């Protein structure tokens, strides 16, 4: 009898949710205006595309070396806490020593300059991007433009290992990728806005204009973290330009998604497979983990400039703040390890490359403002009140910080053609580039298939 009552309650709840969902999906899509975000006169926009190389002055490197040498003594960690109080300062000490004695920026600078980089002014901002074209493309193989978008606390550095996997012709494919990888505004070598309002949705407009500037009328987009929000907005606003979207963080925060999540508390099998149930239920654990891991988000969505002062002044503090995320967001179990598990998927050079991009550009404060502009001012940044109509694919990684099963997010995508699961965490391109590249190839192969005739 109890099971029958639960079933009836679920049916009623889902019916109500479906009505709410349909009401909300009737909202028209409002494309953000093409705001001028930079200084200067909009009538004098410089439309040139200028080659760019990373060249950090010696005085910045010497200043960094002195700050690392003169860092104050760390508070010793409590016994046996590993990474549960944030980054373990014994681990941090090891990384800072590596940074000071073994990390060679000039060598890493050459590594980062291996791919062609450019800048161009879009809506008043100098936007930095990597642009790699495939070589030796045989006759009959089509080149497909692919925009790759990173998130926080990442950078374009996340994509360096995946670039050759996407731009090299494969024997069984009739296409190959030409990749465009921009730095988000206010991140790394891309200029930050001088006025409020530049969030994920507005960044989608900038990147549409970047692709237009490069001469691409139709293209594919891919992203995780903020890249997921930006590329989703591009697919929503410009379905005539975006041929398909691939995400490695698929999220819906709609009324229907929330209702399904609650319904699963009563009947989990309606929402998630048994092997993945522990990632969501009981909901008390799910929300406890959110409270544990997302404190940074509230801070950055409300007071980014305050924490930015501290992080921008101390390279050690910046490293601690960022590296902690590369531990817990890659695998939550790594909190139980003294070494944070970092060398399982990364090297210290890779991690420090990413930190250095923030440090040498003074961009940590401006990078965090996307939280204030998107979450604090636009609470529907991950909502699906408007459905994405272009062909879509999702790669689900086991340790993604925001895990949702396909049953919850699928209503956001009208043409969801592929969902695959892989071992890995939040920084998929950086951690497991082979798996992510494989999924992108599979997805675009399906996107490129001609439509089947109706029977």
Automatic annotation (TrEMBL):
GO cellular component, one term: endoplasmic reticulum membrane
Keywords, ordered alphabetically: Aromatic hydrocarbons catabolism, Endoplasmic reticulum, Hydrolase, Membrane, Signal
GO MF annotation list: cis-stilbene-oxide hydrolase activity; epoxide hydrolase activity
SUPFAM superfamilies assigned: alpha/beta-Hydrolases
Membrane topology: Single-pass membrane protein
Enzyme class: hydrolase
Gene3D superfamilies: alpha/beta hydrolase (3.40.50.1820)
Ranges for domain Epoxide hydrolase N-terminal: 50-159
Catalysis performed (reactions): cis-stilbene oxide + H2O = (1R,2R)-hydrobenzoin; 1-(4-methoxyphenyl)-N-methyl-N-[(3-methyloxetan-3-yl)methyl]methanamine + H2O = 2-{[(4-methoxybenzyl)(methyl)amino]methyl}-2-methylpropane-1,3-diol
Signal peptide: 1-17
Cross-referenced Pfam families: EHN
UniProt subcellular location: Endoplasmic reticulum membrane; Microsome membrane
Enzyme active site: 225, 371, 426
GO BP, sorted A to Z: epoxide metabolic process
Annotated EC: 3.3.2.9
Family listed: Belongs to the peptidase S33 family.
Primary role: Catalyzes juvenile hormone hydrolysis.
Protein name, UniProt field: Epoxide hydrolase
Biological source species: Tribolium castaneum (Red flour beetle)
């Amino acid at each position: 009898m109890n099971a029958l009552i639960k079933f009836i309650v679920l049916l009623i709840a889902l019916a109500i949710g479906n009505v709410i969902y349909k009401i909300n999906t009737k909202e028209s899509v409002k494309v953000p205006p093409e705001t001028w975000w930079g200084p200067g006169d909009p009538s004098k926009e410089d439309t040139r595309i200028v080659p760019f190389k990373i060249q950090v002055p010696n005085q910045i490197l010497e200043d960094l070396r002195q700050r690392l040498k003169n860092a104050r003594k760390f508070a010793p960690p409590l016994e046996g806490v590993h990474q549960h109080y944030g980054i373990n300062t014994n681990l941090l000490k090891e990384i800072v020593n590596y940074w000071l004695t073994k990390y060679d920026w000039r060598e890493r600078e050459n590594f980062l300059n291996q791919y062609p980089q450019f800048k161009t002014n879009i809506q008043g901002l100098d936007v930095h991007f990597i642009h790699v074209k495939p070589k030796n493309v045989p006759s009959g193989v089509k080149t497909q433009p692919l925009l790759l978008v990173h998130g926080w606390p990442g950078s374009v550095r996340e994509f360096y290992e995946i670039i050759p996997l996407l731009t090299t012709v494969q024997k069984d494919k009739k296409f190959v990728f030409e990749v465009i990888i921009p730095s988000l505004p206010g991140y790394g070598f891309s200029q930050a806005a001088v006025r409020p309002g530049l969030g994920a949705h507005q960044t989608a407009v900038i990147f549409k204009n970047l692709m237009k500037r490069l001469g691409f009328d139709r293209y594919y987009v891919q992203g995780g973290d903020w890249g997921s929000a930006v590329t989703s907005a591009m697919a929503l606003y410009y379905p005539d330009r975006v041929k398909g979207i691939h995400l490695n963080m698929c999220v819906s925060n709609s009324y229907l998604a929330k209702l399904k999540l609650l319904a699963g508390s009563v009947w989990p099998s309606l929402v998630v497979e048994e092997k993945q149930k522990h990632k969501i239920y009981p909901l008390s654990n799910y929300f406890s983990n959110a409270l544990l891991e997302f404190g940074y988000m509230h801070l950055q969505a409300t007071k980014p400039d305050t924490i930015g002062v501290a992080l921008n002044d101390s390279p050690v503090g910046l490293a601690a703040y960022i590296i902690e995320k590369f531990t817990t967001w890659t695998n939550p179990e790594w909190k139980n390890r003294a070494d944070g598990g970092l060398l399982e998927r990364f090297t210290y050079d890779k991690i420090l490359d990413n930190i250095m991009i923030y440090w040498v550009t003074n961009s940590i404060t401006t990078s965090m403002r996307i939280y204030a502009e998107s979450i604090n001012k636009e609470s529907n940044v991950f909502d699906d009140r408007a459905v994405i109509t272009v062909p879509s694919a999702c790669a689900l990684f086991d340790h993604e910080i925001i895990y949702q099963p396909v049953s919850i997010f699928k209503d956001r995508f009208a043409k969801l053609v592929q969902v695959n699961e892989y071992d890995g965490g939040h920084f998929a391109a950086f951690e497991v580039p082979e798996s992510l590249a494989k999924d992108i190839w599979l997805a675009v192969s399906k996107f490129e298939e001609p439509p089947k005739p109706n029977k």
